[in-house]
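Hi everyone, sorry if this is the wrong subforum. Our group has a chain we'd like a structural model of before ordering constructs, and none of us has done structure prediction before. Sequence below.
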Amino acid sequence: MKYNLLGNTGLKVSAITMGTFSFGGEGPFGLVANQGVKEAKRLTDLCIDHGVNLFDTANMYSTGLSEEIVGEVLGDKSDHILLTSKARMRIGEGPNDEGVSRWHLIRECERSLKRLRRDHIDIYYMHEWDGTTAVEEKMAALDTLVQQGKVRYVGCSNYSAWHIMKSQMAAQAASGVKFSTQQIHYTLEAREAEYELLPLAVDQKLGVQVWSPLAAGLLTGKHKRGGAAPEGSRQAAGWNEPPIRDIERLWKIVDCLVEIAHARAATPAQVALAWLLTRPAISSLVVGGRTETQFTENFGALSLTLTEDEMTRLNDASRLPLIYPYWHQHNFALPRFGDADKALHDSYPDRHYGGEDPLI
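Answer:
Right subforum, don't worry. Here is the predicted structure as tokens:
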């Protein structure tokens, strides 16, 4: 296992995080899997044996059942295992059963701790933006949880860059705890995070956890151009994330993954994960699975080093257009880019003003 620092903290996290999204299988989560205690214990033990020290869950996963199972299967191992959980999504019918108000966050953290059988959560994520609660109230509530010892680090998930900076500045003004990390969706197919979220992470020294790094299985090579969704896949069960806006581009990426994997005696999933692990600010990839074979395959990505030519081919197949103002900055500001700018622009070939590059 490889371990990376979580942003600007001194906390070392495994490059692979075990996702427990499928534990419990209640409601829509049953479309992914329905793993009970026995199955979950077998898979968590496998991950721990491979050096995984970070496990990811949320209060909304099967309405708390995932947290309950995580708490039971980790047992006394939890002293040296790191846990993340999340709050913000609706978890009941009451008017305060969602959001990031002080009332909701403190109540949900305390509920999560009981389900997890722990006295603290190592990384507590705000699961989604809430535009109706003042950022000052949210960050003050998180600071309270840290000061009480119930939370070690705080982060955000599915925020835009301005959401993060507004939250960070509110915390700084109050001399309170700031976000140390963000959890985002980022894959070879979904590279929108490169426009602002990755540059922000580099500039602000935020760690980055990636959720669904294989695009809900679409980048495993099991899905074929023109074919039906494979039996047992999320898509066959009716799962509709992530959105694919350019299906031909998806298959172009999959073709490239399959070609490189074949040449390297690897799997497309391993190549896709290995690419992500080269990206700026990435601390850990949140990987789920139904079987031990799936997890073992994903661990193989850690020993796969892609060549410069392979990286170029993958970037050429997946690169998104440089939207404004980034195409303009690339034309005129290139010599004065800092490390945060390069988190986006280093994936693009040089061009000059007035060039014929179709990405302009």
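For your construct planning: The chain has two domains: 3-312, 321-360. Strands lie at 3-5, 12-14, 16-19, 54-56, 82-87, 121-126, 151-157, 181-185, 207-211, 282-287.
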